[in-house]
Amino acid sequence: MKVVFFGTPQFAATCLEALVDDSRFEIVAVVTQPDRKVGRKQVLTAPVVKEVAESVGLKVLQPASRQELYDMVKDVSADFFVVVAYGMILEQRILKLPKIDCINVHGSLLPRYRGASPIHEAILNNDSETGVSIMKMEEGLDSGPVYLLKRMLIEPNETADSLMVRMAMLAGAILPNVLEDVSGGLLSPIAQNDNLASYCRKISRTDGELNLEKDKKERVLSMYRAYSSWPGVYFFLDGKRVKLFDLEDSELSFEKRGFHKDDVGDLYLSLNDGAIKVNLLQIEGKGKISGQEFARNL
Known about the structure:
By secondary structure, the protein is an alpha/beta fold. Helices cover 26% and strands 30% of the residues.
């Protein structure tokens, strides 16, 4: 079966690798986002999917607009278009191009968490389970009928990063057989219940900002687990951003909000319903330091 694969981050790369390793599929093209400047030094960086594709000699397309995308793929002969965290909604004229179907892999139990950040949203809401949905694509946002839904448990204290790795492995394991079954007419998609739909947007840097007066411990810890790699969790102290790392729940409480230390010199962040232990932090413009080192100056 001939496949055009659309995807950008590591999650998508894991799915691409699963198809590359399966002799039933021929990847005729890989479509990914353009290279972007990343970090303070603004180094031009290729998407992970591009790196994986080029490492095995696949043709890579990086359109900068919907029109350019259409022009690039309109004459490509493929049985399936497979879309995994690509970063652009496909127009109806593109969805009609493959001979069999356009398939999307989504990191939630649809119709829950349609949108750009379903894995982070599950962590933020302290969900006990999530899963992978493989759906037939339509022009709406993650609204197409679902071919297969596979559940998985969220482990205690799991971060979005670790959940993403496990979910990508699950998606890569089930995707090839779903394509095989769809091509053979063995799977029929089931419509989503739009009345149960919820949505999540693309994460922004400001999503990691804490409100020490309003946020409770559970919320701060879930934000830390959801945003540990980016944007991180932080608040402003004397006009400078203070980013927090390696947080632990605690039984301690302090009268005033903000930083405090205990009798052995450990650092805690006091909130309105208790305190969280801070093992590592970084003040804007400086390197990371341990909580105990910071606490010496309190």
